[in-house]
């Protein structure tokens, strides 16, 4: 990444990009469909955001439809088939770039990606918003990074806090091993679980494996799965042989969170700020969020990205108006912080201030956001790869040779990628 700032959201100097497109020559009506990204599904919140846009651009009128993740894809696909796709859609690269963009349904947003935008927005986010030919189908607004967490009370009692950096929330692989062993030796035998009953929370187990020795889940072009690297095999062999770490085929991510919060597990690999907000008051110990351990102490976290795409409905006036809306929501000095806060996530670039300065929890977790690594969830065959992942972990947990299980996963995932 260009900037490895620990609190990237607090630097001075606001970056504002001029509108790439002006669509006020004539009145135009456009539609925005939004998936439930934080409060972007709350009508009162969104209407407040759009009111500011209408004030600044009175000749562009925006109407909104709210989607959910149960029926939203069906609604969009039905609209596409009927020639009634929305002008703007708010979601992530998996849909905007890998799905509808790959089908040639989306407008090219490259003119929004000015040199200033490319310099400001995190590299991992920029890479995820374009296809392999460098065509941008998404302009991003917000992001989050997933973490792990430890039971600080247990770690302190086991004298294991010495192996992590509480200020930067990082640790090395070597110190992770020492910390787990210390907690295990203190009498808490269930330190952590590589959960694998299904795909729930699988971003945590992938981040754990990939970070331990610097492995990658896919190649840089996001066209091939690369789990069968020496680094990833070494990481899985390490976990399979550690005291205190089990491969548990009876639980998924949500179950692991419950076991962590009730004190059964000393650490959780399926964690983020939302879990902290939902569970901290009900736990009897101090939760310490941590980045995943890495060999050099410089982790690359998994996360989510959300932003805007524009369907190419053949009307250049509406496309231009949609781009004006996006530019205002994501780049306007006064509007952009409010747009991001409505998502309940973090900006994809420095906005010149800590937008959550009155929220201690969000400020605490902001340290992880600039550490988000490669956003590989846009690789072909993703759904099949997710299933193959937890099947592979189950095999390792039942005693299958790690290299054999990894090679089977890689073959299955890559076969799906080329279909």
Describe this structure in words.
The chain has 419 residues and is of the alpha/beta class. It has 2 domains: 207 residues, Periplasmic binding protein-like II (D-Maltodextrin-Binding Protein, domain 2, 3-Layer(aba) Sandwich), CATH 3.40.190.10; 192 residues, D-Maltodextrin-Binding Protein, domain 2, CATH 3.40.190. It is built from 16 helices and 11 strands. The strands form 3 sheets. Strands 2-1-3-10-4-11 form a 6-stranded mixed beta sheet, with helices on both faces. Helix 8 crosses helix 9, helix 12 crosses helix 13 and helix 15 runs antiparallel to helix 16. It is globular and about 70 Å long. The two termini are 32 Å apart. The N terminus is likely disordered.
Describe the structure in brief.
With 419 residues, this protein is α/β, with parallel strands linked by helices. The protein has helices at residues 43-56, 72-81, 93-101, 115-120, 123-128, 152-157, 173-185, 202-212, 230-241, 253-261, 273-279, 316-331, 335-343, 360-365, 382-397, 402-417; strands at 28-34, 60-66, 88-91, 139-145, 147-151, 192-195, 245-248, 267-271, 287-290, 303-310, 346-347. Helix 1 (43-56) packs antiparallel against helix 13, helix 8 (202-212) crosses helix 9 and helix 15 packs antiparallel against helix 16.
């Amino acid at each position: 990444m260009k900037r490895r700032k620990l609190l990237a959201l607090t630097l001075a100097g606001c970056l504002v990009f001029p509108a790439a497109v002006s669509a006020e020559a004539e009145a135009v009506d456009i539609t925005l469909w939004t998936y439930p990204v934080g409060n972007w599904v709350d009508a009162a919140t969104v209407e407040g955001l759009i009111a500011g846009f209408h004030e600044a651009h009175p000749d562009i009128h925006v109407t909104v439809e709210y989607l959910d993740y149960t029926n939203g894809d069906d609604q969009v696909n039905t609209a596409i088939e009927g020639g009634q796709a929305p002008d703007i859609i708010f979601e992530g690269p998996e849909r905007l770039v890998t799905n509808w963009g790959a089908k040639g349904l989306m407008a090219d947003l490259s003119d929004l990606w000015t040199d200033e935008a490319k310099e400001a927005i995190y590299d991992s986010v920029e890479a995820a918003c374009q296809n392999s030919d460098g065509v941008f189908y998404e302009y991003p607004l917000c992001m989050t990074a997933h973490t792990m967490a430890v039971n600080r009370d247990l770690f302190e009692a086991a004298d294991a806090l010495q192996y992590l950096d509480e200020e930067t929330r990082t640790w090395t692989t070597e110190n992770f091993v020492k910390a787990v062993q210390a907690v295990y030796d203190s009498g808490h035998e269930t330190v952590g679980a590589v959960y694998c009953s299904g795909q729930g929370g699988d971003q945590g187990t992938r981040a754990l494996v990939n970070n331990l020795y610097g492995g990658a889940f896919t190649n840089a072009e996001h066209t091939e799965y690369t789990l069968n690297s020496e680094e990833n095999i070494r990481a899985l062999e390490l976990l399979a042989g550690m005291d205190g770490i089990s491969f548990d085929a009876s639980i998924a991510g949500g179950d692991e969170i419950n076991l962590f919060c009730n004190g059964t597990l000393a650490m959780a690999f399926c964690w983020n700020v939302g879990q902290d907000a939902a569970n901290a008051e009900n736990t009897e110990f101090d939760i310490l969020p941590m980045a995943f351990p890495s060999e050099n102490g410089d982790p690359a976290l998994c996360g989510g990205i959300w932003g805007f795409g524009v369907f190419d409905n053949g009307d250049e006036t509406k496309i231009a108006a949609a781009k004006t809306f996006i530019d205002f929501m994501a780049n306007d000095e006064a509007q952009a912080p409010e747009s991001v806060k409505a998502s309940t996530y973090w900006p994809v670039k420095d906005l010149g201030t800590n937008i959550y300065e009155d929220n201690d929890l969000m400020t605490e977790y902001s340290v992880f956001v600039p550490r988000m690594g490669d956003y590989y969830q846009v690789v072909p065959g993703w759904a099949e790869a997710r299933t193959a992942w937890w099947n592979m972990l189950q095999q390792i947990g039942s005693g299958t040779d790690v290299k054999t299980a990894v090679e089977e996963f890689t073959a299955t995932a890559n076969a799906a990628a080329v279909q």
